[in-house]
Design a protein that fits this description.
It comes from freshwater metagenome. This protein is α/β, with parallel strands linked by helices. Helix content is 41%, strand content 21%. α6 runs parallel beside α7.
């Protein structure tokens, strides 16, 4: 057996020497996830098996290389969901939960039936959260990266098997019948933006970078949303905190009631809009 307190102290020291930002928190998160208990319960226990100790020490070595905790444990938590993640798919961020809250509020006030398409679905965080919390909504998750699609399909099977998963690119994705809601969390970071090592070295650049100024890919998502949304349909798109005005401009042609939404610190993080009746020109 190995003593939990000693394991955590040693792990914290190792992570601190590797210049990991939150060594104490990361040590506790990794060990509590390994033992499948809460951090509070972890501090009340005294011992782990030698096998568990070996696995934990290996995880600490991985974290020293700045590998994200979610990739080490294989899970990411998003609203009420436990999603499977790994190399090849973007790790869901807490900020995206605010977009989901806004969309769910609108869905709850809308007439049925409802179809929602999530563009650039990645791990499926947005699509699966909506499908899980409002089961009567038809949800379609669209993703163009085959590596991410593996994780999307895994998560859909575990969380909401009724979600339709489609491999497609937003530039040529089309629907036979226009839909009521579209959500999107496109790559929106400017090409030159400096990222933390654990993001830059591990998470897929294609899911992060939105082109030179960060708006090239969001513009493609906006045009796709305009094509597939019915008149009066609701669109929600996540973006960077400095892109609120650029997103508003990009939405002007085909959308009305453009509204920028702010996070708890007052930063603009996502925008909603209502599809107007102007046809998309080819």
């Amino acid at each position: 057996m190995a003593q939990i307190k000693q394991l955590l102290v040693e792990a914290e020291t190792i992570l601190a020497l590797a210049k990991i930002e939150n060594p104490k928190l990361d040590s506790q998160l990794l060990l509590s996830e390994l033992l499948q208990i809460s951090r509070t319960e972890l501090l009340l226990q005294s011992e782990v098996t030698l096998e568990q100790s070996t696995i934990f020490n290996d995880q600490i070595k991985q974290r020293c290389d700045h590998r994200p905790i979610q990739y080490i444990t294989g899970v990411a938590y998003f609203r009420y969901l436990t999603l499977r993640v790994g190399e090849g798919v973007l790790i869901p961020r807490p900020e995206t939960e605010e977009l989901v809250s806004g969309v769910i509020e609108k869905i709850n006030a809308a007439d049925r039936p409802i179809t929602l398409i999530d563009l650039g679905s990645g791990s499926g965080a947005i699509a699966l959260a909506v499908a899980y919390e409002i089961p009567d909504v038809k949800v379609i998750a669209v993703e163009n990266c085959e590596a991410a699609l593996i994780w999307l399909k895994k998560n859909a099977e575990l969380v909401a098997p009724h979600v339709e998963v489609i491999l497609a690119d937003v530039n040529n994705f089309a629907v036979a019948k226009k839909v009521d809601f579209v959500t999107a969390n496109p790559p929106y970071l400017p090409q030159a933006e400096i990222l933390p090592k654990e993001v830059e070295d591990f998470e897929p650049a294609a899911a992060l970078r939105g082109g030179g100024d960060g708006m090239e890919i969001p513009n493609q998502f906006i045009l796709c949303a305009a094509r597939i949304l019915k008149s009066g349909g609701y669109f929600a798109i996540e973006h960077g905190e400095h892109q609120g005005e650029s997103i508003k401009i990009a939405l002007n042609n085909y959308f009305a009631e453009v509204t920028v939404h702010y996070d708890l610190t007052g930063r603009p993080r996502w925008t909603s809009a209502i599809r107007n009746d102007l046809e998309v020109s080819n």
